[in-house]
Structures are given as structure tokens and as C-alpha cells.
Hints:
By secondary structure, the protein is mainly β. It has two domains: 1-35, no CATH class; 43-130, predicted glycosyltransferase like domains (Thrombin, subunit H, Beta Barrel). It contains one helix and nine strands, in the order ββαβββββββ.
Amino acid sequence: MSTLESEQSLSCQVLSEPLAAGTALRATQADVDFGNRREHFRSPIEVTRPIGLALASPQGEPISPWISADILDLSTGGLCLVLMAGQDFEPNAHLVLNLRSQPGFGIEQLPVGLRWFVKGGLLVSLGVGFDQPFERLPSLA
């Protein structure tokens, strides 16, 4: 079986080597039994202004320099972001978003919790959750 045809199960595994491009990923039965953990419908975003992201104190105050992040998708419960690698994140880290570039949120800074993150070469993708879900999706600029 070629690298492009190989399948890898990622359920609760730490990868010791990077996956080759084109590797098919499949869920294990445990993943299927666990089901989709997302509570909120995700709306993919095509193009929008970047936002700021910083590590935060438990009170939501920025404690690291701001870095730029692009929004990949949005729900009433959180965001999926992508940013340049270089910042390390601890599981369940406190983060704060600078939303000045996105007035549709109606707030300039928003404390969020890190739900997951994946490092991949030069980029990091991460999911953040809002403490309280929004009643409706904010409009993005």
C-alpha cells in the first residue's frame, strides 16, 4: 500500500512522525461510539480580516504579545483559527481575542478557552470556545 493509500487511526494517539500528504484518516469504533462532540453548527469562513490572539490570565487579561490569527470557521459557541507556528499552547489554556477588526462581535476583547490545537509545519490550527454561546452568529468584516 502506498503512502497516499495508507490509513492511520488517530484516536487518542500521539504521532511520532508527521503524516504524509494524502494520508487517509479514519475514525476508530471508539470515535464513532463517542459521536460528534460539537454542540454548535459550524459556518466556514472564506475571507475575513484577521484577529488578535494572546495567552490570558484566568481573569481574561492578555499576558503575552498579540499574534495575528485567521478565522477558518465560526459557530455561536466558538471559532476555529489558524496562525503561524511559534506560540506554544497548553491544554485548556486561557486565551483572549482582540476583535477590533471584527465589529460585528460587539466587543473589543473576548476571553476564550482553548479546546484543541494541531501543529502542522509552519501553521497551527486551534479551536477556541466562548464562555457563553452567542445567540446568533456575528457578522464578519
